[in-house]
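User: I'll paste a sequence; please echo it back and then give the predicted structure.

Assistant: Echoing your sequence first, then the prediction.
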Amino acid sequence: MKKSQQIIGLPIISISDGNEVGKVKNIILNAESGKIDYFVVDSGIQVLSTRVIPTTNVLGIGEYAMTILNPEAISDISRIPSAIDLLQKNITVKGTKVLTKKGSLIGETGDIFVDVDNGCNIVGIEYIADITQKKVRIIPRSSVITFGKTLLVVEDDVQSRLLDDPSDLSENASDFNKETDRDFSVNTTDKYSDVFLDEVPEEPAQNLGDITEEPQESAAFEQPPAETRQEVRSSAAELFEERQRQYLRGRKSTKNIVDSNGVVLIKAGEVITDQVIDRAKSIGKLVELVMNNEA
């Protein structure tokens, strides 16, 4: 789990060649699903269009870097209508007012907490009740009704469910994921919905046309069983790990890599073996190993 500001600025590493292909410039949020759908790339050169990485193309987000398989994981946003739509909506969450379902303004938001190991879902939001005191607590995802452009709408009992320790978010998110009927879309029949009119699509027929042109997006309405999704994630993880091993195996480390206790995992110039890969993975040094090797 990471805050968004711990993700923004990370180097983006292509593990197929070990090169840095840019940095994470920003994130693009999906208000309806409550997760990060795309990462904006800063490649360090002037380009005519924004370049993004779909969350599904991200292999991992670690302490030192974000990893992707190869540069082809980066796309021009002009080729992804859904990304353009989300970018135009400009849902930031950070720095917005917090409104209860009954219409009381109770504070404002700080940064968001993201589960980087589970689809980059938002699992919590920093909550500042009094901006003069700057006392920060955490709103759990389960208390959020709507992620809006200028307002975060929450349940009326949110203050009794606030958390102080980010580690408590993991258990809370696990319970929330069991609520399969949860809906984050704006309720246009609610008496407070006029606050969010700029969030509601003005031309629903056009949206239906978009779904017709891009049938893969309609799949969200017919989710496969949880067991099937878990099997797919497991298979993808196993495939990625095997490709990662094939890439690293036999290459040489270009620096001394040590664990948190100062014990040397591998010295510069030594050959990377499966044993080294296993050890690096267990102590959280796999990304550092990926970033510092040569053929």
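Residues 180-223 have pLDDT under 50 and may be disordered. The chain has seven helices and 18 strands.
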